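Predict structure. Chain length: 333.
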Amino acid sequence: MALPSPKEFIEAALIASSPYALSYSDSKQKWLILRHLLSLLQENPGFRPSTGRFMHNDGTEVNLLCASGCVHVSNSTPSIPLIIWIHENYPQKAPLVFVSLDPMTPIHHHHPFVDTSGAISPPYVLTWKYPPCNLSDLLHNLVQLFSRDHPFSYLPTTSFTHPSLVSRKEALDRLVGMLYYDMVALQASTFEEIEELSLLQEELKRRDRFTTSMISEMEQERKNLKERSNNWAEETDRLVNWLRVNDRRPIMALAAGNVEIEDAFEIDEKSRVRLDSSAADLAIEEVLYKLDKALEQEAVSFDSYIRQVRSLAREQFFHRALEMKLNGLDIPH
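Prediction complete.
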């Protein structure tokens, strides 16, 4: 049995009843679809009509006519398999056009008119208006688009015909493509700049934390220095008051600039003897401590240690007795 011709297939599909009825209700619409679809098939013999269920993005399912086939745009690029679904509200609504997906020939990223799902949205479809738009002109427009920007290879053309030599739609297609690639390049550079600025922001935050820490430490150091300065001022005041009470002449002479600062600390003979005796006592105490350590380490003999301790203890006793006498204390017997 011979296969039906495309015309017979389309006519039979348009008049079919449930459950095979298509989602085209108006007889004039069906006649227009038949005419446009036959024109498309006559100009592109490689396309074949068929029917199928189509699901819109909102989940609605409809029975539609479609035409599928391949377009060949150049000898250096692979053919492009297309499927054109005739919208249930055609021709007021544009056809739904897709590139048939093949894992071996994926659609390249950032194509201006084809997304990764295969949906095609060129300006011709986005600005669809009937008349004059129709299926044959749509396919012709797609061939022109894909000859400049193939969906399977990222090789956008760099040669352009003078604007006066192309149609308005072709000029719009080229303009949209150029703007799209400029936008992609701008997005890439913007993303890179954002990454650099993010790194710079982190570095500035790190430096801010470091600077804040340094300022805090310097502030604490300033407080410590101020406290030490106040302590020194208090010590100076106490010293000046002591000098003023114990000997006004040196401090008055110092204030008048008549003597050197060392002269302000002159002491009498009794105080000098007391100071010398106290220094000798402390020195003997230090020597006795060192002798104890030397004996522990066996650096001196026990006999030598005893002789030295007896001699130093006797001398220390006389120094302490002298200090007690100078301080007006009784010497115990």
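Summary: The two ends are 150 Å apart (CA to CA).
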